[in-house]
From TrEMBL:
SUPFAM superfamilies: lambda repressor-like DNA-binding domains (SSF47413), RmlC-like cupins (SSF51182). Coiled coil: none annotated. InterPro entries: Cro/C1-type_HTH (IPR001387), Cupin_2 (IPR013096), Lambda_DNA-bd_dom_sf (IPR010982), RmlC-like_jellyroll (IPR014710), RmlC_Cupin_sf (IPR011051), TransReg_Diox_bact_type (IPR050807). The keyword Secreted does not apply. Transmembrane segments: none annotated. It comes from the Bacteria. GO terms for molecular function: DNA binding; DNA-binding transcription factor activity. Residues 23-77 form the HTH cro/C1-type domain. GO terms for cellular component: cytosol. This is Cupin domain-containing protein. Keywords: DNA-binding. Pfam families: Cupin_2, HTH_31.
């Protein structure tokens, strides 16, 4: 029998990778100006600067646009290849990034299931949504997605239609359909989410 799901802590910054520093490092490595990335991501320079210095946290939608402007993906930003070809993440040790975190906004935590490897064709995360958390607008990209709700209730908007999924429900859709989501449960919602290819 599986142990009951643990309620994740989202108040411990030591759990999460340094989002701003990683974005800044990738931008500098690619020799891109703050202005260039801000324009491509349809984000103000001041907001991007705050994100890079960890004075603001982007929504999932904005983070996806910034990653695309840097010609990378969220998966590649927060993963490192394992030399052995085998990666094991134990419970509580998965690399994670927190998005949409502000005093008045609930957070979404993305827990990596595997590192991003060269030539990889599939990407997986566990999306952990605090009560009231939402993705922050429509996201579109190449590929397709499969999800399975582990805990809670999520309302998803896919291609202009609204769906509600509870624990035990699954879904599949083409990623080029505009999609977004919000937690409709009183507690945490957890979703096992798989994308192919690794365009998220």
């Amino acid at each position: 029998m599986l142990p009951p799901p643990q309620t994740p802590r989202t108040d411990d910054p030591s759990q999460f990778q340094d989002l701003g520093a990683r974005l800044r490092a990738v931008r500098r490595q690619k020799k891109l100006r703050l202005r260039d990335v801000a324009e491509k991501a349809n984000c103000s320079m001041s907001m991007l600067s705050k994100i890079e210095t960890d004075h603001a946290t982007p929504s999932l939608r904005i983070l996806h646009r910034i990653a695309a402007a840097l010609d990378t993906s969220i998966a590649e930003l927060f993963s490192a290849a394992e030399a052995s070809g085998v990666t094991v993440y134990r419970e509580g040790e998965r690399p994670a990034v927190l998005v949409r975190r502000a005093e008045d906004r609930p957070a979404i935590r993305l827990e990596r299931l595997a590192p991003a490897l060269p030539g990889q064709i599939v990407d997986g995360n566990i999306h952990v949504l605090e009560p009231g958390a939402e993705s922050g607008g429509d996201i579109t990209h190449a590929g397709e997605e499969i999800g399975y709700v582990l805990e809670g209730v999520v309302e998803m908007m896919i291609g202009g239609r609204t769906y509600t999924f509870a624990a035990g429900d699954s879904f599949h859709f083409n990623s080029d359909l505009p999609h977004s989501y919000r937690n409709k449960a009183e507690g945490v919602t957890r979703i096992l989410w798989v994308n192919t290819p690794t365009t998220f």
